[in-house]
């Protein structure tokens, strides 16, 4: 049971590369915090700094209120689950789990009690006398978890633990990790590049890019109100549609010249207009924001279908529920509820809208070039 | 183009692919006979001289000196072997082969174990620790590859004389222990150990020594076995250095003694005892290889991770 606090943490490598550029995160006791971002965004480096495997260039990391910058990984009272499991290949499952406890000089029967109970929780009891190479990927994964659990640490650290499993197993393990973390109530930091994993696991979602935190929040808050175009396109699959805006005499114009009479965005800052594929509705439907959509490809997934196409000079994706008889080449109107539109400035930052604002597409078809 | 390449790969795979019974696919019965004939010929070339040495070792000196030598073992097996082992051999000052075998075993084991201990520790330091001049030390070790005993024999001999190590086991083994090859072999192996494993051990509270003892050593055991076999034989067959650094007959290794037993005049040489000594000189390395064969092969082909 512990909190984890990161204060202006930076990592500068000796070559001068700055991998983490001043990150501050507060993780509550018992929460599961997911760091998500593309490869090279610094999320793994950050995790390894919490673990004590990387030195901290600047800033402070505190576990349970105590700054741990100068403390080695073994004394931080953390347990880590590695991407490739990092099981000791020459040791049996039992010894893999017991090794950390033996190194701490714990009594033999206490070690046995802990290993047996962890093995029971993870359904590994039958496998305790096997060696790692005799186990499947999913079983190895569970042993790696077991090795973390027996330690009963203050913090669990997960470094992309599911990325080596096949899709089905990944789904199962995701649920299992969540359940286990809930029942043990141990504060956890989880690194992944998979936004679906991040959304489903997190109590607190941290989206990182290029060594900085783009947004911190509850997963659905991040989804509903992405703080930047990066978050908007990274969280959610398929990503949010983004339409570039230009400044026109009487408001903003889309790429094809259609003018938006906008009262929603004060000033002229808005440079991009966004909406999620599932927020677009086929048909004019009375929404004030409507586009003439030209379908180029149809992806039926089963429960839903994605229409890839073009509107207002930009590539868009529109999700429709179930199956569809729309064919490539079709043209149709697509509209979006006003409340479902997002606006971003030229730097990609979210623009909060004035509550009463309504975006109206003015002079709809007439303004479009032939 | 792509099809072509695929077809070519396919046919190569068919030729090289092994069937379940271990025979090569695409090789017919006749070529298999030829292959066996070549193998048998090779075995004969290697084995016959050894067999002939054994035959000679069971004959009396008179029989050996009066050619042709019979092709079947004689009746002097027991006499010759007990004389050689326990009786002492006149031409090397009455020292028995038992002393020679003991000396050689000490030297071969000392060199093999010493080399492994020194090189595994230096590879451990070079791969897993960051210390000043790390690369300098690495290259310093690497460069000694170019300085085998034969090249540095005069200065090394001088050092041994100054330290009073002539006619000692230390003098016989120490200069042959430091080994760049073994260090490099362990370094290459250590480099293949995933960083995550090292980190997992750190998180599990294993310090450097524990990591070495609990994880690195068990993982290296096939490498150690292979290296032991190679180094044991290397030590067993040393000639030039033991020749220089020993004067007393009872400090000779078996190879040196063998050389001393052979006189230029045929009649002075006790050939039957020479043959016995030959057989006894061959036996231990063969035993080591036979006993450690499984480990040896695994160490050369398999990396357990």
UniProtKB/TrEMBL annotation, chain A:
- Note the superkingdom of the native organism: Bacteria
Q: Could you tell me which InterPro entries the record lists for this protein?
A: AAA+_ATPase (IPR003593), ABC_transporter-like_ATP-bd (IPR003439), ABC_transporter-like_CS (IPR017871), ABC_transpr_MalK-like (IPR015855), ABC_transpr_MalK/UgpC-like (IPR047641), Mo/tungstate-bd_C_term_dom (IPR008995), NA-bd_OB-fold (IPR012340), P-loop_NTPase (IPR027417)
Give the family from UniProt.
Belongs to the ABC transporter superfamily.
UniProt protein name: sn-glycerol-3-phosphate import ATP-binding protein UgpC
**Entry GO terms, CC:** ATP-binding cassette (ABC) transporter complex, substrate-binding subunit-containing
Q: Which PANTHER family match?
A: MALTODEXTRIN IMPORT ATP-BINDING PROTEIN MSMX (PTHR43875), SN-GLYCEROL-3-PHOSPHATE IMPORT ATP-BINDING PROTEIN UGPC (PTHR43875:SF12)
UniProt record, GO biological process: carbohydrate transport; glycerol-3-phosphate transmembrane transport; glycerophosphodiester transmembrane transport
* Family matches, as Gene3D superfamilies: 2.40.50.100, Nucleic acid-binding proteins, P-loop containing nucleotide triphosphate hydrolases
- Species this chain originates from: Aquibium carbonis
One family from Pfam that matches here is ABC_tran
Record's SMART domains?
AAA
Keywords in alphabetical order? ATP-binding, Cell inner membrane, Cell membrane, Membrane, Nucleotide-binding, Sugar transport, Translocase, Transport
